[in-house]
Structure formats: C-alpha cells, structure tokens
Specification:
The structure is a single chain. The chain is built from 14 helices and 15 strands. Helix 5 packs parallel to helix 11 and helix 8 runs parallel beside helix 9. Strand 14 and strand 15 form a beta hairpin. The strands form 3 sheets. The protein has a 7-stranded mixed β-sheet, sandwiched between helices. It has a 4-stranded mixed β-sheet with strand order 1-2-3-13. The chain has a 4-stranded antiparallel β-sheet with strand order 11-12-15-14, with helices on one face. The chain folds into 2 domains: 141 residues, Aspartate Aminotransferase, domain 1, CATH 3.90.1150; 274 residues, Type I PLP-dependent aspartate aminotransferase-like (Major domain) (Aspartate Aminotransferase, domain 2, 3-Layer(aba) Sandwich). The chain is α/β, with parallel strands linked by helices. It is 39% helix and 16% strand.
Length: 448
C-alpha cells in the first residue's frame, strides 16, 4: 500500500466517525488497522506492529484464530440470531453456561449474558439491589469501589469507575457511589502501627462501610488486578481481608474479571491467586478474544436461589443477551484456552516480560517500578526514584514514551506516566523479547 493510504483513510474517518475517548488532536496521528495475525497488527500503509495491549486487553488469542472464525461462521449459517429472553434459548448459550459453571469459582453456577463489560457492571448493580430487596433489606443500594478502578462508562458503571477524568462532562453522577483508596503497593501509605500495607488498604473498605452505614451498602466491586488504572497488583493479604469485611457487614463482593478472567493473570480467574471466592463476577473481553462483543455476570448459588424462590420476573434485559453467534465463539474460545493452557502460558510469558523489563530498565533513575501479574505489566515513570516524586503532567512523559514505542513497532497505551502492557497470550517469546527492547530503547530516547 502507498504511504499516504493511512492519511487518506483518516481524513474519511474524521468526516463521519465519533470515537471512544474522542479527540481530534489524538486522531490526526492515529492508526488505521487493516490486517492482523497472531500478536501482530498491520496498518493501512502496510507496516507491522506488535499489539502490546491485545487490542483493549481482550484479544488474548490474537487475530486469525481459525477455531473462532469457523465457530462464528458455522453459527451464522445455522442461525445468526434468536432472542434470549425468558421463554427462548439456544444450544450455544446453554453450553456456554455449562462451561462457565465448570471453570469459574465453585459457588458461581448461574450466568446472565450482556454485550460487554459496562453492561455487565450495570447488570451486577441491578442484581445486587434486587437481591437485597428480596432479602427484606431495600435500603442496601450503595456501591463501593476503588480509586483507579475501571468498570466501564455506561452511566452507572461510570459512577463505579474510580478514574475521575471520566466524570466531569457527564455529572451529576448517580448518588450512592463511594470510592476508597486503591491498595497500590507502590504508593499507598499505611497508617502508623498498621498490621501490614495490604490489611490497612483493605480496612479502607470497613471505614467506608461504617461511614455509610452497613445497612445501606449493597456491594463492593473490585478488579483482582486493576487494569486501566495502571496494572495495580494488590498485596497478598488484601483480598482475604476484603472477603472478611464483606462477610462481617453483609456486603456482596463483586469481582470484575473483565480483564483478569480467562487466564490473563496466570490463573483462570483473578481471585484464585488469593484463594478468595466472590459472590458475583463479571466478564467480557477475552471470553471471545474480542471476536464478538459478549460479556456477562455470574452469581452465587445463594443469590440464584433467592431469585428463583421469588417467583417474580427479573425486569432486566438486553436484545443481544445470549446471542447465539457470540456464545458459539465463546464456547470455541474456552476450548482453546483449556487446550492450549492460556493460564500457564500467561504465567510463563508474563514472567519473561517482567524479568526482561526489570533487567533492562529496572535500575533507570526515572523508573519507579516495574510490576505485573501473569501477562499484565506496567512501567511507572517518575521524576525522582528516591522520593517517588511524579513528573509534571505538562511534561507528557507517558505520551512521549508511547510515541517512541509506536515509532519502533509496538502499539499499546499509557495511564499518565505508566506504560501498560498486556500482549496476546499467544505472543511468541521472540516478540516478548522485542517488547522489552522497544520499551528500553524508548525509555532511553525520552529520559536518557
């Protein structure tokens, strides 16, 4: 293709499209992707890039997976769509429910399907409110989440999301959403005399529940590893203490597995790392590797029993819930995840990436921390390593490093001055090593 092919397409794009996080300035130097194979993306000029974030954390199987393409094609031929409303079902949705019951937390065996992560957050919020009403506790409606938590940007999900840049244009927010500090091991400061940093960070939840009144709090929602907020891996004692607090105050623990589910962290689901069982989960992204827009929630046997005993319909619905084509692709994806041991691959390749980055730039005076779990990593850039003083936002360090990595054939995203990495789980070891080289070269190009 010619070198101006991408520029021509971007001009056509600008005439009609509004993008997520729409910004004309950002889009002027954007990419137009026309091809992909495995961990690589090809732009309209014919240049090849490593997909450093699996699209948006979702394309764990990479592009061109024949099993997923064939599963979707077959289902489109047989029956592209049928309603999933009560009174209507399809074999693919039934099979997907059975598969999820087998691979998720043992207490979670009932599933509702959505079109993605934001819808899943909204569905869990509504499910939690409904459950507490059925239990005779209608005042329990509040949602507690964490600063830097990302749960989507539909209106209720946006209120749960703890990244404040997403709020001002759309306020007022819905009342009844509360945010507590993230456990962020690199930056969280535990009070003097605290048993540990992790316990102190978890105890922020207890403080918030007591401040709000336990009889008003429905649920606490958290990602096992905070993704878009900067790949924040919690302390080992954090989630066990969170579970204790939720039990003590009768608060539902919701695990947002939209990024961490289906092997990304080196376990099938994220809270398995700490032996904790949630009351509800939500998932999307890797359940179809992004080949179809599908998400959902899973609820505990206790919540399902209360729901079924009520005898009343649950007045929540999406046209595309239990979409047969999406479910067919999800079924093929779960088979692939198990057959090719995605959790094991993520653990091994993630270790290679993390160790590689630490060896290459771990001692750089402007690298505050290199962190990760499974095949999720972040490099946090700071002005002063000793004091953890951050760069001025106006310096745009993260954006400049990102621009350098793109020049070198690696495409990913940043959160402020943290460079984020979550390449497809199928990424080759050679590409993992190349990611390390590119990040190291880009760091030195910007920061010396």
């Amino acid at each position: 293709m010619s070198n101006n092919a991408e520029a021509e397409l971007l001009a056509r794009d600008a005439a009609h499209l509004i993008h997520p996080l729409h910004s004309q300035a950002v889009h002027k130097t954007g990419k137009v992707w026309v091809g992909g194979k495995g961990e690589f993306l090809i732009d309209a000029n014919g240049d090849k890039f490593i997909d450093g974030l699996s699209g948006l954390w979702n394309n764990t199987a990479g592009n061109g997976q024949r099993d997923l393409i064939d599963a979707g094609s077959r289902q489109l031929e047989e029956m592209a769509f049928a309603s999933g409303y009560a009174g209507s079902s399809n074999p693919q949705a039934i099979e997907l429910g059975e598969k999820l019951a087998r691979i998720t937390y043992p207490n979670i065996n009932h599933f509702f399907f959505t079109s993605g992560g934001g819808e899943s957050t909204d569905s869990n919020i509504k499910m939690a409110r409904y459950y507490w009403k059925l239990k005779g506790k209608p005042e329990k409606t509040k949602v507690i989440s964490r600063i830097w938590g990302y749960h989507g940007v539909t209106l209720a999900a946006m209120c749960a999301t703890g990244i404040n840049a997403y709020w001002p244009m759309f306020e007022p927010r819905i009342p009844g959403f509360v945010h507590i500090p993230t456990p962020y091991p690199y930056l969280y400061e535990a009070p003097e005399g605290a048993k540990s940093q992790g316990i102190a960070a978890a105890d922020e939840l207890e403080k918030a529940i007591l401040a709000e009144g336990a009889d008003t709090v429905a649920m606490f929602i958290a990602e096992p590893v905070q993704g878009a907020g900067g790949v924040i891996v919690p302390q080992a004692d954090y989630f066990p203490r969170i579970r204790e607090i939720c039990d003590k105050y009768d608060v539902l623990l919701v695990s947002d597995e939209v990024i961490t589910g289906f092997g990304r962290t080196g376990k099938m689901f994220g809270l398995e790392h700490w032996g904790v069982k949630p009351d509800m989960i939500q998932y999307a992204k890797a359940i179809t590797s992004g080949y179809f827009s599908l998400g959902g929630i899973g609820i505990s046997d206790e919540i399902a029993d209360v729901m079924h005993q009520s005898g009343k319909p649950w007045m929540h619905a999406y046209t595309y819930s239990a979409h047969p084509t999406g479910c067919a692709i999800a079924n093929a994806m779960i088979d692939l995840i198990e057959r090719e041991d995605f959790p094991g691959q993520a653990a091994e390749k993630g270790k290679r990436l993390l160790v590689g980055l630490k060896d290459a730039i771990g001692d750089h005076p402007n690298v505050g921390e290199v962190r990760g779990l499974g095949l999720m990593c972040a490099v946090e850039y700071v002005k002063d390593r000793g004091t953890k003083e951050m760069f001025d936002a106006a310096d745009g360090i993260g954006a400049r490093i990102n621009a350098e990595t793109i020049q070198r054939g690696l495409y990913s995203r940043v959160r402020g001055d943290a460079y984020l990495l979550a390449p497809p789980i199928v990424t080759s070891e050679a590409s993992i090593d190349r990611i390390v080289e590119v990040v190291a070269e880009s760091t030195k190009a910007v920061l010396g």
